[in-house]
């Protein structure tokens, strides 16, 4: 009996030692995982994001359902929106449909189908005509859209006024260059094609950037460093040799 008690005691001690070793190894592995995650987050924080971005791409795009559509979080909705825009562009650009013509044709087709359906059900089956729902635009929706549009237009006028006053030369030159590029692009394609190109770009570039943002940001940082090096060399060789008039220090009492 004493030998049996000693054996059971030894087994209990060995089981406790094994449990302690397993718990220590699991805690060590958890500590290693937490340290690795901290290191990866630190490395990601050191990467300079594109255009000085501090927020996630989803939040920059406004968040909610529109951002989900642009980033293909909801693939069915994104495909439907992009397919609808492509169909509109094909109708108006390739098939050379006009907006008024398309609207009238769609309205004629809808009225003809509803008219034939209503009369066929009454004449053949002696049933009452189908119920056509009453379509009405809610007043609150129109007021909200008008207020939002008014706010954006007034903010645009305020920005243009601030640029025109000459307070920020850099912003003025950027706006002038952007408008000139836009006018040049407008000569090559019409407004609908330009809008479609921008729409497709919004559905592709943010998705690709969100998927490969670490690689893109690292490449952009390297490109920025190389550009600064080349600019420094160009400034040392050419810009610094441009003669300038003598500057006289003026002291004001």
Automatic annotation (TrEMBL):
GO terms for biological process: response to bacterium. Residues 66-252 form the Reticulon domain. Residues 16-37 are annotated as: Disordered. It is a multi-pass membrane protein. Pfam families: Reticulon. One of its GO terms (cellular component) is endoplasmic reticulum membrane. Keywords: Endoplasmic reticulum, Membrane, Transmembrane, Transmembrane helix. The chain crosses the membrane at residues 98-117, 172-199. It is found in: Endoplasmic reticulum membrane. This is Reticulon-like protein. It comes from Musa acuminata subsp. malaccensis. The lineage of its organism: Eukaryota, Viridiplantae, Streptophyta, Embryophyta, Tracheophyta.
């Amino acid at each position: 009996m004493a030998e049996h008690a000693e054996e059971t005691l030894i087994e209990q001690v060995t089981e406790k030692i094994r449990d302690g070793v397993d718990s220590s190894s699991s805690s060590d592995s958890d500590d290693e995982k937490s340290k690795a995650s901290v290191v990866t987050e630190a490395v990601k924080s050191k990467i300079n994001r594109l255009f000085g971005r501090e927020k996630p791409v989803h939040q920059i795009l406004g968040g909610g359902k529109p951002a989900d559509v642009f980033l293909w979080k909801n693939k069915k909705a994104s495909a439907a929106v992009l397919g609808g825009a492509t169909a509109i562009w094909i109708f108006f650009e390739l098939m050379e449909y006009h907006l008024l013509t398309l609207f009238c044709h769609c309205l004629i087709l809808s009225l003809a189908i509803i008219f034939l359906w209503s009369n066929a059900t009454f004449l053949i089956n002696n049933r009452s005509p189908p119920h056509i729902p009453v379509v009405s635009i809610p007043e609150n929706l129109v007021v909200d859209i008008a207020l939002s549009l008014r706010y954006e237009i007034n903010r645009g006028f305020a920005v243009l006024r601030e640029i025109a006053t000459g307070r920020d030369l850099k912003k003025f030159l950027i706006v002038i260059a952007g408008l000139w590029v836009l006018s040049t692009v407008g000569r090559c394609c019409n407004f609908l094609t330009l809008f479609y190109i921008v729409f497709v770009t919004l559905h592709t570039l943010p998705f690709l950037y969100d998927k490969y943002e670490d690689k893109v940001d690292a490449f952009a940082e390297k490109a920025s460093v190389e550009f600064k090096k080349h600019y420094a060399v160009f400034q040392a060789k050419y810009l610094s040799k441009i003669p300038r008039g003598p500057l006289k220090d003026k002291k004001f009492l």
